[in-house]
Write a structure and sequence with these properties.
Blueprint: H1 2-15, E1 62-64, E2 67-69, E3 79-87, E4 108-110, E5 118-124, E6 130-137, E7 147-150, H2 151-157, E8 165-172, E9 213-220, H3 223-235, E10 241-245, E11 260-264, H4 270-282, E12 289-292
Parallel strand pairs: 3-7, 4-6
Antiparallel strand pairs: 1-2, 3-8, 4-7, 5-6, 5-8, 9-11, 9-12, 10-11
């Protein structure tokens, strides 16, 4: 019980800034790179995957802002696209969810459900730069970001100026060949509302010079539920609403049922997605997230 409270206290300390960006897309005045960022940050080596025991804290289910997240224990096959953000000096030296101090110059990251620690390769879909980071923290919890990168990792990916970037995140392991692309499995990465279904991880190995952004508001196994939500969003004039099936029907069992994704977009910017998310929350609909294609 004591360790659980330690995790919750650590998470609450992150909510003030981990994954939260200024309206301009950069960072808040009390965060950022600091007054004298190192000139040789490009030479900081990527994290080297190695076999490690799970941390004593940060790997149990937890609740933030009314949403419960259940960390997974197996990462093989994990690949997902979404928006990355970064956090810097405001949290430098402070305790992460794994119990380690945050080092903004280390190649680390925060994720809501991947095991602590674990390793992922992050690819910037706009410039194809890649880094390998060690996930040792929880977040981001605001603005529908997929992963929160350290300052060093964000600098190497080229997303410091904008504050965010469209990325593909893929699990890597100590026994993986350097050039290996993980095979894809389908499993839920976070606990979502019972009315919604766990969504398969989108897969694409082709570089995306101009990735398209959508705000995914819901994912259902029942077509009628998707239609009802889309009609509700259309009445609010939120933009172009579409229902996209995520997979082909391959059988008659529940595990083979198609998943109907209700989306708004394509979006013109990340900021538009954030504004739409706030409006949708006011309608009583939670769980919207920015997805990348």
């Amino acid at each position: 019980m004591k360790s659980r409270w330690i995790v919750l206290i650590t998470l609450q300390s992150l909510l003030a800034g981990c994954g939260t960006l200024a309206p301009s897309g950069g960072y808040y005045e009390d965060d950022g790179p600091g007054p004298n960022p190192p000139a040789d940050i490009a030479n900081i080596p990527d994290a080297a995957p190695k076999t490690e025991p799970r941390s004593a804290t940060g790997n149990k289910p937890y609740t933030v802002y009314g949403t419960t997240y259940t960390p997974v224990f197996e990462t093989r096959g994990y690949r997902e696209r979404g928006m990355a953000s970064w956090y810097g000096k405001k949290f430098h030296g402070k305790r992460t969810s794994s119990g380690e101090p945050y080092d903004m110059l280390a190649m680390t990251a925060a994720h809501r459900t991947l095991p602590l620690p674990s390793y992922v390769r992050v690819r910037n879909l706009q410039n194809n730069r890649t880094v390998v980071v060690r996930v040792n923290d929880r977040g981001p919890f605001l603005h529908n970001r997929l992963i929160d990168l350290s300052y060093a990792a964000a600098a190497k990916l080229g997303i410091l100026g904008t504050g965010t970037g469209a990325v593909e995140v893929e699990a890597v392991h100590p026994d993986d060949p350097a050039t290996q692309v993980a095979q894809v499995k389908t499993f839920p990465l976070q606990l979502i509302a019972p009315a919604l279904a766990a969504e398969p991880i989108p897969v694409s190995t082709a570089p995306a010079a101009s990735p398209k952004l959508f705000l995914q508001v819901g994912a259902f196994t029942q077509w009628d539920n998707a239609v009802n939500l889309s009609h509700r969003l259309e009445r609010e004039s939120l933009g172009v609403i579409s229902i996209q099936p995520s997979q082909e029907i391959k059988g008659t069992g529940p595990e083979n049922a198609p998943l109907y994704r209700v989306r708004v977009g394509p979006l013109t910017s990340v900021e538009e997605g954030d504004r739409l998310t706030e409006r949708i929350v006011q309608l009583g609909v939670t769980g919207a997230r920015i997805v990348v294609e």
